[in-house]
Amino acid sequence: MGRNEVEDKVENVVDPEDEHNGDPGDKKLKQEVGEISVERLFEDQEVPSWRKQLTMRAFVVSFFLSILFTFIVMKLNLTTGIIPSLNVSAGLLGFFFVRTWTRLLQKSGLLKQPFTRQENTVIQTCVVASSGIAFSGGFGNYLLGMSESISKQSSNTHDFKNPSLGWIIGFLFVVSFLGLFSVVPLRRIMIIDFKLTYPSGTATAYLINSFHTPHGAKLAKKQVRALGKFFTFSFLWGFFQWFYHAGDNCGFLYFPSLGLEAYKYRFYFDFSTAYVGVGMICPYIINVSVLVGGILSWGLMWPLIENRKGDWYPANLKSDSMFGLQAYKVFIAIALILGDGLYNFLKVLSQTILGLSHQLLTKKLSSELPVANHSSPTSSQLSYDDKRRSQLFLKDQIPTWFAIGGYVAIAAISIGTLPHIFHQLKWYYILVIYIFAPALAFCNAYGCGLTDWSLASTYGNLAIFTIGAWAGASLGGVLVGLAACGVMMNIVSTASDLMQDFKTGYLTLASPRAMFVSQLIGTSMGCVIAPSVFWLFYNAFQDIGVPGSEYAAPNAIVFRNIAIVGVEGFSSLPKNCLLLCFVFFGAAILINLVRDRVDKKWSRYIPLPMAMAIPFYLGPYFAIDMCVGSLILFIWEKINKSKADAFGPAVASGLICGDGIWTLPASILALAGVKPPICMKFLSRGSNAEVDNFLKSLG
């Protein structure tokens, strides 16, 4: 089939805006288009060299998008810690900005280089690498867990290191690049030989490929328009909410939408457009799992344990004491997280070993046995795509000596630098981590290729227990464990991110060298942008990490207490807390076993323990927001599924981006000492004199 015929078929696909629901002709046409060789669409286009894929405009756009996405990730990190995949949003916005740029230059006759899908891939890679540092940098977990404010909420109050912009940037620069160099030599094995799926990378590649076809460009323009509308709405709604938030317990965040008794146990809708958007992006089972966890903990367990006050724990303790109810909230959540993490770690490790054995055995057999030559159209199309992609993927090699030399050099610098940042972290602790890190980075990258599930936090917890216990309580083991967690999380997280990007580059014919350079530049940006954004939050909002505040950062206290348990044991826990921890640890493993053993038709209804654990400490209010997002998407899909599939991610991204970027002016106003003009109280008539006088005047 020729390129013109293919383009005609693609352009004839009915747009979701105009499509009639359930039209079998449309579905048949879409199915036919789905079978067309992707690379035949682009066979007349010359693939630019790897240097030409790295354009100045790409990195200018990446820089501004990185700031936007870092604000989004940082806000989500410091509120609940639930961060959806933003790859689609990065690809979509990158396409929109550069396409607008090139259109303007084209009209003025100044365009020298057209916008290609390879350049789009470079932008997406750079933005995701940069904003990814906002997660792996630990601003919502291990790094904030080192601070004095979090230490005061734990049983270990003396082992802390307060955040400072200088040492955070230095720490990130010496630990964030090792993961990139550790898996570069394995790119051919993972992508071409083993043909790992990397679902997020594959989905992003198909999205970028579609953008650069005539029909895809038309649809992308409509998607960006939808994103812009909901971005504006979300941003203005954030300003509207801020306007009425002049004091404590003011504003829509404190509206008891489900009643006063429910509000007491954090069951309310807090009008967060960001988490409505997150609910539209996350799978239904994630949102339902979070709600189930909230109902189980705040609806059943905490009221029952609260009635045991004076028996299980002293009645005169403050609500945030780690020797009272707070201990149950934190440590039962930790038990669920560790049970789920251990199960998935062993599961992915076994899949990795079995998968490697199968791949190596299959490769050996295929080299000994003749392969049948299938002549079906689909096979020939697939072989054409694979041949073209493999040829270009292997063209621009990254020398193995460069990867190994880079890893050794950065590891040496890191071993010499980190003990100056954390005096308790001895050089030999870091050396041991760097010896084992490449193997763990490979396991995480391989597992992510199979399941799309990065276990960076689990590997981080493994480092907390092993290195923290090795250091011991007398040598600052809590701080050592948290620092070791940061080193490990950065390595394994960036390794899986890089391999996802290699998969995207493979499917869009982007050069591996361009991908690697883009990842290096994006990571460098992130090492400066992410700490700067965090520092803005940290100075603008004085209640970061405080239970019940807007930026409660629940994972910070969880990670710190994991470190305390690893170093000191369970001796200080209140009555029956350890027993409940064992019960929930076992329950997490049992639930996962059942999920994997039953039929897929039923397993999708079984909640995920990791998601259930999130509201145990924080409360279920954000779960209600997310379920509202799920309900909106569910109804939309029932009304018009194709339109929901096409525009749902754009609408969700607009809601998340608008609310996330509002935190920038809100932070600046807070730093400048500008407070909202009105305090709107919902919970007490007499707490606001003006409202009280107004109500009295009405008689």
Could you please describe the fold and organization of this structure?
This protein is an all-alpha fold. The N terminus is likely disordered. The protein is about 70% helix and about 0% strand.
Give a concise summary.
The chain has 699 residues and is an all-alpha fold. The protein has helices spanning 3-12, 24-34, 38-41, 50-53, 56-79, 87-108, 117-136, 142-145, 148-151, 165-175, 178-183, 187-193, 199-211, 214-243, 260-264, 273-281, 284-306, 325-368, 377-393, 400-421, 427-451, 456-471, 477-508, 512-540, 554-568, 577-597, 600-603, 609-618, 621-639, 641-671, 689-697. Helix 16 (273-281) runs antiparallel to helix 30 (641-671) and helix 18 runs parallel beside helix 26.
